[in-house]
Every structure is written in C-alpha cells, then in structure tokens.
Amino acid sequence: MNTTPWGFRDILPEEAGAREEIAGTVRACFKAHGYLPVETPLLEDAGSLGARGRVVDTPFRLFDDDGRLLVVRSDNTLPIVRLVSTRLRGARLPLRLRYEAPIVRSQPRNVGAARQFTQLGFELIGEGGEAGDAEMLALVIDALRALELPSWNIVASSVRPFMELITRAGDEGFAREALALVHANNFVDLDARLAASGLPEPVRRAISELPRLHGGVEALDRVDALMAAAGVAGSQTRELRALAARFAEQAAAGSLSFDFSIMNSFDYYTGLVFKVYAGNLSDPVGSGGRYDATLDGLMAAAPHVPAAGFAFSLERLEAARLADDDAHGADADHAVARAAEEPLRVAVPKGSLKEGTVRALEAAGFDASELCDPGRRLIVRARDLRAGANDAVGDIELVIVRATDAPAFVSAGGADCGFCGRDSLIEAGLDLLELIDMGYGACRFIEAEPAGRAGAAERAYARRGCLRVATKYPRIAAAWYEQRGIAADIVTLHGNIELGPIVGMTDRIVDITATGRTLRENDLVITGEIMECTARFFVNPGRARLDPRVRALAARLEEAAGSLA
Fold first, then answer.
1. Is the pLDDT assigned to residue 11 strictly greater than 80?
2. Structural contact between residues 271 and 290, judged by C-beta atoms closer than 8 angstroms
3. Are 463 and 215 a contacting pair, CB within 8 Å?
4. Is 348 buried (19+), middle (13-18) or exposed (0-12) by CB count in 10 A?
5. Does residue 110 carry a pLDDT above 80?
6. How many CA atoms lie within 13 A of 382 on its CB side?
7. How confident is the model at residue 297 (pLDDT cuts 50, 70, 90)?
8. In the prediction, which pLDDT does 437 show?
9. What is the dihedral of CA 481, 483, 484, 487, to 10 degrees?
C-alpha cells in the first residue's frame, strides 16, 4: 500500500485552494511594501548554514557525490543570509526580500506532529533600530488585517536582557547551560543550576525571574528593576517600549503583550523577538525577530549590517481562519482552539501522583474532592474556593490521564496545563513550559544489577563493547550513558524491568526507586545514581501567553508547593 512518510501529507484541491488564497493575500501585502521575491534551494550545505547560527534540527541529511554534508532546510532565514552574503554582497541597502517556501523540521515520533511546513516570510536587511522594528511590526499587522483573522495577539520580548545577565555571570559553561535550559523552557532546572552557581543573589534572582515575566508595560518596568539590581547599567527595554508606543499609534485591532519566556530556539537573534497568535490557537501563526550580528563582515556596504525577519506558517494561518467556525481549527500542527470563557483544563495523573496532586490543588484553594473517587469519569470539576478574589481563576476541569500521557495532552491542546513527574517530561521531549517543582512524588533514577553477578557487566562490556540495559525510560537512560561515554544498547520494556538482568536478557536496568524494596526483594543492588525526580507543574506555552488564568493558577500552585514543603 502506497502512503506518504509520517509527518507529511497530500493536500487536495479544496484545501489547496484555501491555502493559495491565504498565500496570495500575504504575498500581495509584502509586495505592496516593496519586498522582492527570492528563492533558495531546498538543500543547503550544512557547514555554510552552521557558520551563521544554530539551526533547528532537521531530520534529513545526505552526502552529495562531492562528499559534502547537505541538509534539507529547516529555516528560511539562514539560507537567505547565505544568498545575500554571496550573491548580493555589493547590493544597495536596505534590502527588502520575501519568500514562500517549504521547510522540514525534526519532530518526536507518534505525537501527531507534521514535519513539513510552508513559510510566508520576509527579511529586512540593512535597516536597524526603531525604524526597522517599526517597519517589521507594520508589515505584520497589515498582513493580519488583510487576512481578516477573527482575533490576534502579538507577544513580544527581547533576548538582550537575558544575554546581558548570563554574560555578567562570567562563566561560559554556566552561560551555555542556562541558555539551553531557557530554550527548552525548563525553568525548574534553571533554578537548580542557579542555586549551585555561586553567583551574587541579585544576578541569580534576575536570571530566575526574567523568563517568567509577562504582562503589559509593567513587566518592562520589572525587567529594568531586576537588571539595575544585578548591576546592568541602562535600560534594556527601550526597543520594547518603542514597539508598544508604535502599536498604540497604529490603533491595531489586536493586542500586544510582553512575555520573556519567548526565547526562540535559533541562537542568531540579538534583540526583539515576537510571536503572533490568532484564532485562540495554542500555537503561534508566525514568529520572527532581529538578528543584527549575522551579516557582520559579510557585506561590502558596511562592516555591521542590521537585519530582521518574520515568517508566517501557512498551515497555522489556515487553522486560525477556520477557528471561528470550528473550535478545533484545521489539521495543523498541535493547533487546538480553546474559547476564553471555557474553564481551564488541567491534566492530572492517576496512580502514585494522584494523592499529592489532590493535596496541592486543595492547598491552592480548589475543592478537588471529585478527583479522590471519580468512578469511571475521565473529567471532573474542581471548584475555585477563591471566586471573586484577585487571583481567582474560576472552576477548573481535571482531565484524568496516565502521568506519561500528561505532556502529550498539554502539548497537543487537550489541556492547558498539567502535572506529572520530571521523568515523563524528559521522555516526552515536547515544547512545554516547566514552571514549578511541586515537591511530592519523590523518587530516584538508578542503575542496578543482580547482587550475585558483580563484575559480569564490566566483563561483558569489555567483550562486546557495549552494555545491554533494560528500562522503561529510554531517553533518560541513553542520555546518562552518553554523558559518561559508555556505549549502551537500550531494551525498552513496559513493566517488570527487574527481570531483564535476572533472566540474562540484559546486563543492568535503569529504573526508579523510592524505598528500594523491590530491588531488595529481587536481590538487585544499585550500581549508579542517575537523578532525583519529583512532580512538576507545566503549561502549554501558547495558553500561558494567551490566557492570564494559566499564570494565575501557576502562582497559586507555587505558593501551595511552598506551604506543603
């Protein structure tokens, strides 16, 4: 049977016609602003792109007959930078370029995510500062108006404050780790890394709080206060304040807010970054920002050439257009519309984490008694006992799931936020904001082997050159062995992990333990400590940026976690 590869799909005439109309509207808007079309190859030299910035991983790499490593592009900005620096090096600035092109990106298997997208974008090269930002904002707003989307929101930030802070830390290793954690939206581990850093308290506080800041202009005031306390001179928010003023002048029909959790996974951004949400979808319909250092030294006109760009996702624009008629939008990548008046949905784990979750919800001011004995119901209500208070979020819906499934529910829009163990988040590998270590459900990840076979694993490793390991947590196990430079063949099991080495199928296991009782009863001894694990509260990034109730719930749960500790 002939089928398309996973993550790819055919587009039939009705949908293709709708996409053509959307693309035509955006194209006409860009053209009216003087942007000229360019096209770049689908395949690019990996070294050429990597020299200009870190690229979102692509699943498709190949060698040509000259032995060069080629990649299928996962981004259109860096190929255009390559085009400009080679073919248009002597061109008169500023350059205004537009494109309409597909990209492919790596995605986790079996999460219903597409791997191919079509971007409708533009690049403004040679126009910097407030003038360039204003032109970029005006073009995006004109396109949104031309598309007649039912609703839209611009969420903006800047990478400059965070980069200033981690530079001030004076530790390149720490800076790399902190930036990677912020790119991964893992604020819990960021706090743990800060606690062990030895940095001055004002710097630690600023690095911890900055990616959690959100709101209106008052959020910018707090950024400046944190930066000043950390010893960073001058305002780091001027460009964002200018953006807010420009937005107000345009009397735009949408809204503008600030959220410093927006740190795009590309490392070439140098200042303003922003995302556009529309149709109340959880995923942005477009994103972009300023990358002023990427073309430095590459153009004949000047040693420093400012640049900025933005790209809409054609698939998500299509979903946003349909959101008014269909609350679940189109068949787009994790794009699920949620009406603002609906109760928040919270994915809650059954099993060993349920009791701690009930306690946390009750400590946060909710009546979660229905969760204690839900019968066969899969969704129950929790009444907000603080109705009418400033931090009220209203009644919430509790979606009862396996802990391992909670990340998928929240990522795909089936819930706005949720609880699960740190292990489930690592294994899922999805784009989620990890906000709070709840402190309950404590356990350890360990490596173990039969007590009577001491030394057997080492001898097997010496003979085979690899270790055979049974586990229910392949990502965690593989990462641990890789960090230690040990080749490991991972055998994924779903229960009774201890049997692996007992029956001789594997040398060791990687598993969780709380009391160690199961290990003792099966005569297994611990040979390695991997990590500690507790329950975490996490949210869908889009819902956190669109619905203030998500952040309000997080604040109440953070206070509750402190009282339960």
1. yes
2. yes
3. no
4. buried
5. no
6. 30
7. confident
8. 96
9. 40
